[in-house]
Known about the structure:
Elements: H1 9-19, H2 25-39, H3 44-50, E1 55-64, E2 70-79, E3 87-88, E4 91-94, H4 99-115, E5 121-128, H5 136-150, E6 159-160, H6 169-183, H7 207-223, E7 231-235, H8 239-250, E8 254-260, E9 263-266, H9 273-279, H10 296-300, E10 306-309, E11 328-330, H11 339-347, E12 351-353, H12 355-358, H13 360-375, H14 381-405, H15 410-428
Parallel strand pairs: 3-5, 3-6, 4-5, 7-8, 7-10, 10-11, 11-12
Antiparallel strand pairs: 1-2, 2-5, 8-9
Amino acid sequence: MKVESPVKSDQIQELDHKQSGTLNLLNSTQLIIKEAVRKLGYNNKMYELLKEPIRTLMVRIPVRMDNGSIEIFTGYRSQHNDAVGPTKGGVRFHPEVNEEEVKALSIWMSLKCGIANLPYGGGKGGIICDPRNMSLGELERLSRGYVRAISQIVGPTKDIPAPDVYTNSQIMAWMMDEYSRLREFDSPGFITGKPIVLGGSQGRETATARGVTICIEEAVKKKGIKLQGARIVIQGFGNAGSFLAKFMHEAGAKVIGISDAHGALYDPTGLDIDYLLDRRDSFGTVTNLFTNVMTNQELLEQECEILVPAAISNQITLENADRIHASIVVEAANGPTTLEATKILDERGILLVPDILASAGGVTVSYFEWVQNNQGYYWSEEQVAEKLRKVMINSFETIYQMSQTHEVDMRLAAYMVGIRKSAEASHFRGWV
Ligand SMILES: NC(=O)C1=CN([C@@H]2O[C@H](COP(=O)(O)OP(=O)(O)OC[C@H]3O[C@@H](n4cnc5c(N)ncnc54)[C@H](O)[C@@H]3O)[C@@H](O)[C@H]2O)C=CC1
Ligand SMILES: O=C(O)CCC(=O)C(=O)O
């Protein structure tokens, strides 16, 4: 079967020129959106609408540091398209976050919500900072300052934030408290990923990894691989990566590699996952306790059945795609594989389950959290897990079938499924 990829050689060259040294997530996303919109039969005006967020706010946040000085932080909140409903998506605290990245991430949130059939468009936020070098007090003041700065454009019926890289339920709690104070009423539906006692949902903490696990279960069936005993390599040991390692270990797969920002651990006979889970810190760091570490890039190239990038973007690129020795790549992280690398993996017969499908479990349970907050009635962990399973299996099968029917790779198929809802809603509203 001939599989079509949205990346043409001249477009790759065009991308290379635009990238000016970095792998530009926004430009490559726009290329696939263009192709998906065209394949769905919409005109160029629809592409013009959907290729950029409708709104991106840049804010400056003064924070008093523990030593008495004032630091000014830069933050962003980007809202891609609100035709379907309020926008939704996480906030990352990271030294390298930038406006283009947040814009791309907000587009991906629209696609994820479209795939999981949630009544949302996509949003995303970020603050340039390194929380690993900040005290709890500084983090609290920064989180509250960010909410005050973006308060005009967010809210339970406008745009609903959530956790992402280096943010967690404590940060969500401070943000919710700040918003509730500003609005002078308790607003649990303003943000998801909260502690359970503040209206968080059972199963949200593990939801992203659960969703990835379900995608792995479906992908191995398609490839005729047995999960029991399959070798798995996971890049990143934070919320997504560490729970995934636990679930894979429990399922009888052999986790032979994990990593964090400092390096990677590899053991072809299988790592002691329970020990690593016990020793990791709240930022998903554990390799600093070991001397025998390899680099993240070396880990990605190890032979395995299943490779899961679960850390940051642009990890599998034109440079290393030929040296990936996995049968299946499941993207738990946002944007870990470039377009050029997607094409190479596809040509090499490696099944790639794209980020906007594989990592949709997080936002799906965030939606369940918001529904529970709105109705004031809460579900058990089993109820949440069952609802999530249905959404993930249905999403996987829809995209797999779309890729077979249209003879396109799984990423383009996922974009076609994901963008359809925003496009239809924009059309019905008479915008395009
Ligand atoms: N937390 C969630 O609900 C969701 C997360 N994701 C995506 O999953 C990925 C991981 O997110 P979380 O686990 O939530 O973050 P986290 O903050 O809990 O953990 C991040 C992990 O990545 C590692 N890391 C950071 N920089 C790295 C680098 N340069 N090289 C290698 N590893 C590095 C950290 O050491 C840590 O182990 C991100 O791409 C995020 O956008 C996607 C959907 C939902
Ligand atoms: O839980 C959410 O609302 C969003 C999670 C997120 O930021 C993501 O899927 O990238």
